[in-house]
């Protein structure tokens, strides 16, 4: 294979000129629905399902056995992962383990762009990558980031309902522990994510776009058109027509068109006193999270 795999210099040059699209932000804020819609755009990776790679946190897992299922699934299977590992070994002078994590991340997307989704622009979704945005922009300085957010009371309710569904299915604690958070823990999470988004927008002006869940789901065509304009891509109606999936999902909304009826209200299902405290504790943050569009850089 020629191009990025010829040398570390070629790989780093590929990453510096690439324009990947990363979806991240608050869990339960529409990241998966947005990914599936974008994957229908002919210019972007046609990712077949919701694969959270955690590649910025777990780059060395590319070399581990057994492989991480979602990292492998993102590459469409074991064969492609094997091809990538072969290229990494060559770049590492026979030992892929000699490569640093930054080059593993670069190579992951370079291989996906040239061998798995050739001719398409990189697209990836992992909510937790919101905490890796400085590194993301260092590796991919021309990247575009879509940061999904949602009314805090709706997030809390969504966590609660998803936790109940997972437990009702009899899944082990390891499968749903990430949902078992107190309100105080979630408020702390909201604040960290809000700070990460604002700091990234200052680090990379014009390259971070806030995507409020209510805006995305209430006006999907207009919101996706605005997102496409941010990405410098033409709007494509195919994004609004996801194919019905044969896969049985715990989150049934992922099998529905983007914009299907959402929750009945931000506070539905929450104790009034609990909802009031959440609104009080997240007031300033919520005002920002309701505004879609490019996140402004903050004054020094």
Write structural notes for this entry:
This protein has 300 residues and is an alpha/beta fold. The chain has two domains: 205 residues, 3-Layer(aba) Sandwich (Rossmann fold); 69 residues, no CATH class. The chain is 46% helix and 7% strand. It contains 13 helices and five strands. It has a five-stranded mixed β-sheet, with helices on both faces. Helix 1 packs across helix 5. The longest helix has 21 residues. The protein is globular, with a radius of gyration of 19 Å. The termini are far apart.
Using brief descriptors, characterize the structure shown.
single chain; 300 residues; alpha/beta; Rossmann fold; 2 domains; 5-stranded mixed beta sheet; 13 helices; 5 strands; 46% helix
Uncertain residue segments:
none
- Which homologous superfamily in CATH is the superfamily of the largest domain? P-loop containing nucleotide triphosphate hydrolases
Count of the separate structural domains: 2
How many individual β-strands?
5
CATH class of the largest domain: Alpha Beta
Strand order of the largest sheet: 2-1-3-4-5
Shape designation = globular
Radius of gyration: 19 Å
Category by helix and strand content? alpha/beta
Instruction: For the record, give the distance between the C-alpha atoms at the N and C termini, rounded to a whole number.
Output: 45 Å
The biggest sheet amounts to: 5 strands, mixed
β content, as a range? 5-15%
Helical stretch tally: 13
The H/E string reads HEHHHHEHEHHHEHHHHE
What kind of assembly state do the chains in view correspond to?
single chain
Q: State the CATH architecture of the largest domain.
A: 3-Layer(aba) Sandwich
